[in-house]
């Protein structure tokens, strides 16, 4: 197995149209994620899926045991691929993710999934702080519009701001096409 891992974050049903918390571009991001998953599997990279459930049944989405909290079929895990359950934004907290990466002697992680401004941001920064090299595939991530102090920030701007911040000091931020080109050389 290579020294790389693909971390698939929260590509879950509630983030898709008809779900409890739909994201802008969830389907397109998941289509890209599916291509990245296939490439990582072909390289025999460690593939780790992370699935979020809130601990309370009155959560706005990802309620425990719900269909919305299940991994979306476009990013479904295969037999033997670990699925970690998390209850916090940062996928390293309380999940065993770091131990899994360290046991696999992983030195570099590639991150895809949702939401760009929360869980993707948190896991990428934490991974960099732990000393892993980090790549984020920007078009395999999705988010939604945010509101702050009476101002609505469109999803595309939220996504761009967070990708720009990660690219500044925490991760290499590239497209699916660039990733696929680099792993098939």
Features:
six-stranded parallel β-sheet; alpha/beta; Rossmann fold; 185 residues; globular
Write the layout of secondary structure elements.
Elements: E1 4-9, H1 26-42, E2 46-52, E3 83-86, H2 97-103, E4 108-114, H3 116-129, E5 133-142, E6 146-148, E7 151-153, H4 155-169, E8 172-174, H5 176-183
Helix pairs in contact: 1-5, 3-4
How would you describe the shape?
A: globular
The level of helicity is 25-40%
**Beta fraction of the residues?**
15-25%
By CATH's scheme, which homologous superfamily applies? Isochorismatase-like
Structural class: alpha/beta
Helices, by number, come to 5
Number of strands: 8
CATH fold group: Rossmann fold
Q: How are the strands of the largest sheet arranged?
A: 3-2-1-4-5-8
CATH class: Alpha Beta
In total, the number of domains comes to 1
The gyration radius over C-alpha positions equals 15 Å
Please give the CATH architecture. Answer: 3-Layer(aba) Sandwich
Output the helix-strand order: EHEEHEHEEEHEH
Report how far apart the termini are: 17 Å
Mean pLDDT: 96
Largest sheet: 6 strands, parallel
What would your notes on this structure say?
- By secondary structure, the chain is of the alpha/beta class.
- It has one domain: Isochorismatase-like (Rossmann fold), CATH 3.40.50.850.
- 33% of the residues lie in helices and 23% in strands.
- It is built from five helices and eight strands.
- It has helices spanning 26-42, 97-103, 116-129, 155-169, 176-183; strands at residues 4-9, 46-52, 83-86, 108-114, 133-142, 146-148, 151-153, 172-174.
- Strands 3-2-1-4-5-8 form a six-stranded parallel beta sheet. A two-stranded antiparallel ribbon has the order 6-7.
- Helix 1 (26-42) packs parallel to helix 5 and helix 3 (116-129) packs parallel to helix 4.
- It is globular and about 45 Å long.
- The two termini are 17 Å apart.
């Amino acid at each position: 197995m290579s020294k790389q891992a693909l971390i698939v974050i929260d590509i879950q049903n509630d983030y898709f149209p008809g779900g409890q918390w739909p994201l802008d571009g969830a389907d397109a991001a998941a289509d890209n994620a599916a291509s990245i998953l296939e490439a990582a599997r072909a390289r025999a990279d460690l593939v780790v899926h992370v699935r979020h459930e809130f601990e309370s049944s009155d959560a706005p989405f990802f309620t425990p045991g719900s269909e919305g909290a299940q991994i979306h079929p476009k990013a479904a895990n295969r037999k033997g691929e670990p699925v970690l359950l998390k209850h916090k934004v940062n996928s390293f907290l309380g999940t065993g993710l770091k131990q899994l990466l360290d046991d696999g002697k992983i030195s570099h992680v590639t991150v895809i999934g949702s939401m760009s401004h929360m869980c993707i941001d948190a896991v990428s920064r934490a991974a960099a702080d732990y000393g892993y090299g980090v790549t984020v595939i920007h078009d395999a991530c999705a988010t939604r519009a945010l509101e702050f102090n009476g101002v609505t920030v469109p999803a595309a701007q939220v996504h761009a701001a967070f990708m720009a911040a990660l690219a500044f000091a925490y991760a290499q931020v590239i497209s699916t096409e660039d990733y696929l080109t680099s792993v098939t050389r």
